[in-house]
Structure formats: C-alpha cells, structure tokens
Amino acid sequence: MARAFILVLDSFGIGAAPDADSFGDEGSDTFGHIAEWCAAGNVADDRPSAGPIKIPNMVALGLGKAAELATGKVHPGTEFTGEISGFYAACAERSLGKDTPSGHWEMAGLPVEFDWGYFQPDYPSFPKELIDRLVERTGIPGVLGNKAASGTVIIEELGDEHVATGKPIVYTSADSVMQIAAHEAHFGLDRLYEVCAVARELVDDYNIGRVIARPFLGESGEYERTGNRRDIATPPHAPTLLDRLTAEGREVISVGKIADIFAHRGLTKKVKANGLDGLFDLSLDMQKDAQDGSLTFVNFVDFDQSFGHRRNVAGYAAALEYFDTRLPEFLEKMAPDDLVILTADHGCDPTWPGSDHTREFVPFVAYGPNFIKGSGGRRNSFADIGQTIAKHLGIAPLAEGESAI
Questions:
Q1: Per-residue exposure over 251-260, b if at least 16 CB sit within 10 Å of its own CB, e if not
Q2: What was the pLDDT predicted at 234?
C-alpha cells in the first residue's frame, strides 16, 4: 500500500495569482523576487555569499518549471537542461482569503468560499466590548497594543510595559486573527494559553479564523519569541482529506503547526519541533515509521514567520538553500509507492510593501519512484493536491479538486 507526504514551505508563492489585483498584490512573486535578489549579487548577514540561488534538487524535481508556468519567466538559478524527475504544476487558490487556514484547508479538499471576519488595522483594532469581556473573563488588568502590527516589532515596542503592568499585548494583521503576546516567565505560559482559550470563545462572535498565543522570553531590548506558539483555530466547516482518512482507519500525522490549523481534527498523531532543522529531522523520523496507507502533513513555518513577514530576503533565500540540501535525505528513503508533494499555502513576498501575505500561485511539485513525471499545467484550486492524494491512497474521491493521476 502507498504512503503520502505533504511538505508545506509556508508562504512559498511562485507568482501573482490571476486575482492578485483585487488583493493589492499584482506583481508579487515570492520566489521570483528572491531569485532576482540573489542573482543581482546582493549579500547580507543571513546570506553572505553572492550569486544565483542554489536549489538544484528542487529544480530537478520541477520547481523552476512550476514557477515558469505561473509567471512565464525562467528565474535565475532555475535553468535546467536535464530530464525533470518529478511532476510539476502551478495552483491558484479558490478560497476567498490568502490566510493560513484557507490555504491548508483547500489543499486538503475544502476551499473556504465564505468571508472570514477581520479586525480593523488602526487603533483600536478590537471592539471595546470584546476587550472588556476578555478582561472580565480572565482577570487580566487590561491590554496593550490593540492594533495591527508585526509581532517582533510590537513586542520590542511594548515588552517593557507588559512586564511592568502584567497587561498582555494584543494585535492583529491582514489575516482573520487575534494575536496575544506575553512573557513566559513574567506572565506565565500556561496563563497565556488560558487567556487565548477564552479569547477563542469570544472571537467566534466575529467569525475570526484564529487566536494565536505568541510567548516570548528575554529582557529589555533583547526579547525573543519562543517556539511555544499555539494557534487556536476554528474547526473546518466540513470534512477534509484528513477526516476522510482517519474515518477509514488510516494514520494521519501532523508535524509542526498542522494540528493547530485543523483544530486538531482528523489526526492520529501530532508532533512538534522548532526551526527548519528540527522540523526536517522530525519529518525524517515520521517518514521512517509511517504506516502503509498513511498521510504525513508537515508545515515548515519559518519560511513565513521568520523571513516572509519579516521581509528578510536573504534569510528566505538561505532557508530555501538549506531545505534543498536536506531534501535528498527524504527522497532517498522513499519506498517505491510513496508520494511526496512540495507546496505552499499562500505567498509572502519579502520584497513586497508591508508585512502581510501575498496572493500567489503555489507550487504543486510531486515526486514518487512510481509517480508520473512532467507538467500538470496551471490548475484552478489547491484542492487538486488533496484529490491527488486521495486517489494515490485509494480512498473515495473528495468533493473538490481534480486529481493529477
């Protein structure tokens, strides 16, 4: 029996989607702009050596060809004259948002074709009634922030006041989200989780997708977010690929924040690690022990939270190059009927104005010793990924998506 693996390079868009203009993202291109930055000879502390981006393993699988399908361009560093060893396509999103849950749910066969609720970007972002109820329910002395912000910036701005007053820092973004930051030692990690759990109940009235706990440590001027982030998401509104597999008695493994994104539904095993290296090591461990007929779903969050949102082009490029050096370890351990898919949930162009996600095509790059090779063209939904896995694993077709096999 076959196994399947989805490796999500969180935010790794490959060119503006057909409807990008309606999001203010026309011209965005996470991968293309990173490749151009590298080829222009730029250097930075995170990538001190100049020259074209070096990701030969993903290029050989078809990543460069997928980006070419999306943009019509051959990006520097992706030129390839040999035989492509994988299947490649460029997927546009059907969901109405460019947020994390929408992207992941759609690739699991469930497009989000309703509007999430959003909080306004300017102070005060959150309705007074919501904050008053949060204070009353949790006993916190009030809140700080109450605006749209970069997490690292607002913690630097308000961390000292938070430590002095005990007031958590609340902020939002262009996503359907309420984020709550607090110091693990001074405020308490468990207390932060408790506050976020109450907030999750309260934001249901506003149709908000996620509440995110953002713990940090350190002292004044040296605060750093920790790996104890927790996303509390609203559950998917209908069964996903994960639910269908578990209903059939299959093993479904979450690596990283996948469990949080799916509200811990449709899973049989959940494991976490910090950093690209930790997540890749853990993915190899799960690959070794995954059962026949299973799905292992991995999210590499650092591409998004550490580089895309931070608008760190050099760091993003270096992270892609690191991932590429590790990829052969995964491919070499694949069984004959295994399938691995490299994809993303949205874009987050590090050259783009602001700090939010960008509306882009995502790669659908697949490899298996016995899987088809060549182009799958432009595709109209991320749900094609879930439908392909459903067919590969031998379960009944999902309601949405077209299989590549």
A1: bbbbbbbbbb
A2: 94
